[in-house]
## 1
Amino acid sequence: MSGQLTASPGNSEVTPPVVLRLKCGSGPVHRSGQHRGAAEEDAASEEEDEDDAELLNVSGKRSAPGGGDKVPEKKVKLEGDEDEDEDDEDERKKKKMMKMTRKLKKKFQ
């Protein structure tokens, strides 16, 4: 490769030759100028993570993953609900009896 290449991710400057080691997997790895935007995004997200960590340290609490703002809703039973539950149960029993009656009628016809 001809020419002197210089890359500067973040605040540091890297000049060839550069040795990169993979944490996992095997090569070959090809690096191009297209990766620069991703490196800048990573740096920005790291800064955001640090800000978030500071906020967590200040509050002393961490929210659960997946949205900790949700409050479990508790179903409140009202007096009329018991009557409705009984009515629903009676209705299910009637339907079951009707079904059994139809089966028996078909069987003996």
Note: DSSP finds two helices and no strands in the chain.
## 2
Amino acid sequence: MPVVGLAAPDYPDAQNELNRRGFVNRHTVHSCVGGDGVKRCSGIQRNYGGALSQNAFRITAEDFAGANIVFSALHFCLTDVAVTFTGESSYDAIWQAIPGFETEVMTELTTQLHLQRCRDLAEQGFRPAAISVAEGDAEGRLIAASGWRRPKVALDVKESLVKREANRAAILLRLGSPDLCSQLLKGSPDPRIRARLMCRLPEIVPCSALEQQLERETDVSSRRAIVLALGGYPAQQMPAGDRERLATVLLDWYRNDPDPGIHGACEWLLERWNLRDRLEEETKMLATGQLEGDRQWYVTGSGQSMILLGPVTKRFLTGSPPSEPGHELDQTPRLQFIPRRFAIAAKETTVAEFQAFCGECPQIDGHYTRNLAPQPTCPQISVSWYQAAVYCRWLSEKEGIAEEQMCYPPLDQIKEGMTMPADYLRRTGYRLPTEAEWEYACRANTVTARYFGESTDLMGEFAWSAEHADGRCHPVGSLKPNDFGVFDMLGNVWEWCQNRYDNNWTVHSEDPEDLTPLDDAVQRSRRGGAYSHGALSARAACRDAALPNSRVNTVGFRVARTMP
């Protein structure tokens, strides 16, 4: 059924009425500005017997690309796009529910770059689904938009290919050809091959070869990966002299390297080599509570490493696609950005840290089941949301943060009925992370279910879940950190977030302040999974919630703050 020459504001209503009758958009054939200055759309509607469609009209290039990311995650494929130019470019687009495909879109490129990108996508197996060209400015510059799609590959097939590629890179390194290994160890939105290679290298490559690779590597993300891979070798495989020499280098990087991923990776390897005393000496000297130089991390006065992130001005995708194992409706994908610089603790708050706080604040009940967190370096469990907020206020006072920068009221006022300051996300006091901050820190620029990929067979390297945690917590930082240098974002304990639990879904979110008064009957969000839960809970998108006064043996927290 054709729809011809409708004014753009009227086109969505006409399309929606036809949708109600069982028709969906097949093509936006024409979108132009007539002599009367009115933008008009024409299209073709077709009845597919119940097929679903999503539409977007008069959107910017950024919103068009963002909508494609979200709709693709929901298994909608771009079927048509129309671009027009009236001083600036705008886009009309149609997505249809076509499972089994992934899509890419291109906008705002020069003709030459657009063609080059087309060739790149064709080599990757994508084929064109839609293209639109409009005349741009007075010089006749062309504005082009195109959409491409290709069939998705089954997860088990992908994992098989990942293992083969990791093996190939490791064998080539052993044979003296390091280029592929160096390339695959670089950080990527899809970390599967990189994580697999990190774990495979110690099984194939002599320790000395990896040391040499570390010495010649200049890419910071590759250096992070090599440091973590070195932790996979038994101590006896590295001569004592070589290990001492490398330990000196690692301590220097831990102290001076500005990258938080290097800082965290060096800490993990030094701990694994039982060099805790030397590490603690360095940490004491670093514990100034201040950012120094170009470091993207600092250490609080009490010795907690804080990782500096943001502002996140480029929207990032949160949530999970329906095809992800464990997906729930409250994990629907959305694009978010975080318009501030913030810091998040590299580790969960430990038993030792929380009990020291309880010693100074005897009104806080610090009781917990000790056999579930048997060491002082385990995460504190049995913490209510209120207790976590009190700890953040106490820590802010200990660190000398001014009263006007406090996010929470005085200790005795942190209870039901309290309200947050209207600008608490602009204040620099310690607080709990928002869900957006938590997920951004967890993903560490990856887009897979976990910051080490999709498969669960690497869980034992990165996250404590029910499959291997032996029914209890483990010391924080025992397993490998993510690329931001943050430990235990998945598994060990659920972590309280600042937000009340909310399932209102929008495509875009700015992570705003939540000023709703605290209510004991309204759940607060928690993230990350726990030692008692299976791998399906240990995903970046997984959400959970509980009442703010509840205390459970699987729940702890980590602190965050907005940075000046």
Note: The first strand starts at residue 2 and ends at 7.
## 3
Amino acid sequence: MRGDKVWSERHTFSLGDDDNLNISCAGTSLNVLTRRWAATVQDLVILDELLKKGYDRRATPTNHYNKSTPTSVYCELYMRSMSSPNPLTMDYKVDLYLIQRWKDERLKHHDLKQPLDLNDPNLVKAIWKPEVYFPNAKEADFQFVTVPNVLVRIHPDGEILYMLR
């Protein structure tokens, strides 16, 4: 599919020769993924090791080490579409990507040679993720087709990329 473009609702998605996924809409483009890596059996064994070694998904990455500092989570929003506001209620709908990054030292491993993409919903559930809410939202949900529309990427240094739609 390299170099091919897929059209959806006035948006262009393309996978370039460098494995970058680019999203563009109305002249604005966003490079969402920097690289796609297939997990090897060894990577999955390492991940199982890390998760079985006392990993508690209820504990934040910094609280796990009894640090008093909060976990820094960097957030980005990419709005795919926005409906016209209802003039009576001033309600509107948006379709967006929520992209979050943070460091979880518990998932750092020197034998991981490249970022590891998780697409198994059970593995995604097994790691700590920040709780996100939109205070003024009347209603919100995540896209769910046959499986949740999420990407979790674990880097060898413990940096986590979490993207959902």
Note: Residues 1-15, 32-36 have pLDDT under 50 and may be disordered.
## 4
Amino acid sequence: MRFHRAILVLAVFLVPACAVEKPGPDVVASFEGGTVSLETVEQRMRQTAEGIEQADRKLLVEAYRDQAKKIVVEQALLHRAAVADEAELPLDRIRRDVILELFKAEHISAPDPISRQMIETFFEEHEQDFHRQPRRFVWHIFRRHLDPTHPERTVAELATIREKALAGHGFAQLAQEYSHSETRLMGGRLGWIYRTKLPPSIEDVVFSLAKDEISPPVEVPGGTAIFMVSEVVPETRLALHDVRIPIHQRLVSDAWRKRIADLVGESETPEDSVVLDEDAFQEATRQAMAGDVLLSIADYQITAGNFFEIMTDARSEFPGLPFFEPNPWQIYQDLVMDQLLYFHAVRAGFPDEPDAAAEIEKRVKLATDAAVIDLRIEAALRQEVAENSDAVEAFFDTNGFLYQTPLRFKLRSLSLPVGDDVDQSTARIRSIREAIEAGTIELATAATEIGADLVDLGWHNVTTLNQLSPKLSHYVLGIEPGGTTIPFQLNHRLNIIQVEERQEPQPRPLAEVEDQVRDDYLERHKQKLYSEFEADLLHDVGFRFHEEAVLLALR
């Protein structure tokens, strides 16, 4: 977790507050370390795009107060002892980003202004990108047919479970106890579901439910399920006036991209560079392991793991609206262009120019201070969580199902080539499976008799099964020990998978997962924890806001 903030040159007069009997008219706040000037607060408000021209007077005073608090918190944190993570600050990346920012400002002319007509034309051409499909946050409890000849028994089981839920039993807890789906580990959570993501018969049921409504039992492949909707987002179609600013920002970004591409387009790429075209990029991001290199130019490198972190940070604040969804290929191209531009700047000697070097050092110091402040806030909040064991234990008691051991399977497979006659091969392997299910032959014996490969697949959980093939988890999840999957094709071979052993999820004690629980608690409550931390720190340093100085300045 990081609290990102912009740090500008803080014109904080480090005059001991006790030495000033009455603050001057330009002092907005004071604390034990000094005072904060009106100019500093207004610089910050301009930098963070907080309007100070037309705001309501009362709200404007509060905006000054909030910015003064932030400045004092930052100053106080910079005077605290260093925390361990500061030794690993990405100083090279910070310097690189500063050089890029300055080089762009000095060597790339600003694009032409974006006109109203350009914005309106873009909206007309991309109107569907501002249309959000309806969606539902869905939970379910699935019961497979233990006796496929009597599906009505499964329906009756689900009806009883549904009655418990309607009587007030928590749906997530019922899913943990009764569901046969791997989603029971998450209390039956399916997550956000859009139209076309489910079979039509199930989709119609889900989208007919109101918030917190539970469906009657529904027939699904292999069993029966009940569904519950906890959040409903209706269809949304934004109007032009809703998106003028985002469109303007997009068009400005596109114009800057073109300027950068024009500058570096003819530049030579260093030897041994790794820059993927779109097809290679799409293939790599589908199959890459975390350590695989997606981009390498000079001493700059982005692995698949790095890129996935970047994509996570870029997640949309408006999920479901295509315009606001991050575009992985565009983000990758921006990384390439930035690094080529940086390489161009270094080769041209820009960082060594006297004026540039001085400004670089100044901005690197500010950016480093910002990173240090983030780390010290995080360390303080983690310490607060560590000391609040009762709250962490209560969080674990409520969410313990998230920390169970995973559902695991020990598997082996019988596999043979499809051959020239697919129907004959399929019929053959089906008869083998029927004999195995009837108990008249063992899997190993069957493999020997028909000349098939017998492969010990070892232990797997749902995640590793999906990595091998999404088909595997679909076929395996409902099978008890000794059972086999229906025959299926994979990599031009016919396969049967047998579940040798099955380990159901088991609760884990807090001591085994305490670090993860603390991280999750912090993520869930970080805004509240930060507010409490800020209030305590400001109290400790004797923060005082001088409202009269602000009111005088606003006359």
Note: Residues 489 and 495 are 6 Å apart (CA to CA).
